Please model this.
Amino acid sequence: MRVGVVGVQGDVSEHVDAAQRAMKEAGISGDASAVRRTTDLAEVDALTIPGGESTTISKLLVKFGLFDEIVRRAEDGMAILGTCAGCILLAKEGDDAVSKTETRLLGLMDMAVDRNAFGRQRESFEGEVSVAILDAPFRGVFIRAPEITRTWGRCEPIGKLQGKIVLARQGRLVAAAFHPELSGDLRIHKWFFNLV
Ligand code: GLN
Model:
């Protein structure tokens, strides 16, 4: 399995590392590498979109010709895991901060996000996320994290913290408001790779 990590901005190396470790732990043969060009994207079976700054990542995706190509591949069935800024980009609806900055969202998942829902309270924190697809809670690392405020259509909420949706799934698309690549717990990655 070849896993690509959108490599234009954000915690790219942490994502590459987590994907490699998760594949190893799950006994999946494959590799992970950064995707910066459309030729890189053409070579991967699944994609992760890291945390970072959603406005910057979006602009750079457009600049490098990756934006439309990611949408096309996703519509073709490619699995995508978006974390934090990546979660925001997967949403169909943003909040005022998204519209004010004219951030183009990939708009692949039937969900709305509030871009800095937790960040307004605290810059970063860790919390126990109850996750429907895991048998025990997941310790999530939240950094200026968004909240998934609403899901509809084919998108289902699968993880909550303090009653707020922080993990959602729509077929092979998965959005996490937190950073599963940073906690050392690779259960979400391993589950995601099984969807690929
Ligand atoms: N709140 C940030 C944004 O709007 C995301 C923060 C993160 O990815 N850690 O892009």
